[in-house]
Amino acid sequence: MSVDLVIVGAGPAGMAAAVEAAEHGLSVTVLDDQPEPGGQIYRGIERAGPELTAILGEEYEAGRELAADFRSARIDYLPNSAVWRLDAGARIAFSREGSASTVSARRVLIATGAMERPMPIPGAERPGVMGAGAAQVLLKASGLVPAGRIVLAGSGPLLLLVGCQLLDAGAEVAAVLETTAGGDYLDAAPTLPRALAGWRDLARGVAMKRRLRRAGVAFRSGVRGLAATGQSVRFDGGEIACDLLLLHEGVVPQTHLSRQAGLAHRWRPEQRHWAPVADALGRTAEETLLVAGDAGGIAGARAASLSGRVAARLAAGVDPGRLIAALDRERAMRPLLDRLFRPHTALPADEALVCRCESVTAGDIRQAVRDGAMGPNQLKAFARVGMGPCQGRMCGLAAAEVIASERGLPVEEVGSFRIRPPVKPVTLGELASMEGEAADAEAL
Ligand SMILES: Cc1cc2nc3c(=O)[nH]c(=O)nc-3n(C[C@H](O)[C@H](O)[C@H](O)COP(=O)(O)OP(=O)(O)OC[C@H]3O[C@@H](n4cnc5c(N)ncnc54)[C@H](O)[C@@H]3O)c2cc1C
User: Fold this and answer.
1) Residue minimizing CA distance to atom 33 of ligand 1
2) Ligand 1, closest atom to CA 257?
């Protein structure tokens, strides 16, 4: 099968791109590993009733129209499709409902979005500790509200948003432990004039904090030395009892597919993550590969949907026109957010579990470096870090930070895991099902 455009991801970027590309007459296939469209922010939007949308807010409700447009567009949408291989020649392999297939395209749009940055603090693997985004997934997907006393720890707009949403859902939010400190505000100050273009979002951030304070939620800033015990959260100079600790220090681009496709990646020092090298419109060094949304750099849902539309127009050979200025405006807040909400738990303590798949702590990684592991790829041989089912998604950033600090080098010099297909687990049964597609199976 061959089409004009294959889009990987049905979040705001992928959905908007699909609608736009179909309007310009392209044949479009959308592959997404979720059962329904929406991505992270609009997860479950088609099923959400008024009670849930009242909790999740108008930003969430805004996804309903996009999802409806997406459903009615003339596209081939394949939910439950996990893409595990992408070649720069725009050939894709994916698994769906127990079998694997390939599809070729003139262009591929990588719109795989972001994931929550793992926070490898000591005890993070214990019951009663999870990502704030994960708690939000349970709320959006199944209407689940956690019971007991909740503490949120970390930084970023999503931390406050989840706190407010949980309050509105009737949960008991006891405290927010912010890793953001006074110095971060000073550091971010020079970016304020540019960020004023996004004053509505700034005002929203202030309002969320006020809402939490009014509800009696305790705030502490500049928190360091976070550790989870299972019944409490400890930090330098204090401890708070809780039934559930929700961790969050921002989101990072999902780069496995773009890396596996061979695209170059650039280290973003403020947010301490990697993003594919692309221009402001999402064009990469490979003419066949475009990138849009958070997969290309974190900028939020509105920017994601605009960048998806820009990419679709490029694929259709149509001038993106005024969309470019709108996209610039949406990205105006980013430098401020990047500086203000710098991650402060990127370098884990020795006892923290960094690679959960293979049970490797930060201390084990430090020992491996002393034994001669010079970078993330050697670390695989020394300590099996990044060799489990997540293929380094959860541990890659922290492992590289530990190696870099141990060797006294910048992270960009230490590098990152080399990503090979399959980027997601594939069963032998799925491979065997690739009837008539022997070349792809052999390539594995
Ligand atoms: C857990 C979480 C919760 C968030 N909640 C909010 C929120 O409430 N409000 C807010 O403003 N922002 C939120 N964000 C930020 C959010 O990611 C962006 O604002 C926005 O959703 C980005 O849109 P996108 O289209 O780029 O990516 P996404 O919305 O992330 O969509 C990407 C899609 O691609 C799919 N995908 C990824 N890899 C593959 C693959 N290999 N094969 C097939 N499919 C794949 C994903 O499952 C997903 O459906 C959240 C982020 C995370 C990680």
Assistant:
1) 9
2) 41
Q: Residue 2 CA to chain centroid, in angstroms?
A: 29
- The answer to whether residues 137 and 151 belong to one domain is yes
Final residue of a structural domain among 278, 307, 337:
337
DSSP label at residue 419: P
Residue 438's pLDDT is 52
Q: Which atom of ligand 1 is nearest to the CA of 9?
A: 34
Which of 45, 80, 81, 112 for mutating ligand 1's site (highest number of atoms within 8 Å of CB)?
112
CA-nearest residue for atom 30, ligand 1, is: 113
CA of 104: how far to CAs of 92, 309, 310, 314, in Å? 6, 21, 21, 18
Residue 281 in any domain: the answer is yes
Residue 83, amino acid: V
Domain that residue 270 falls in: 2-115+252-337
Which pLDDT score, from 0 to 100, does residue 327 have? 96
Is this structure's pTM higher than 0.90? Answer: yes
Residues of the chain under the 50 pLDDT cut: 439-444
In the prediction, which pLDDT does 442 show?
47
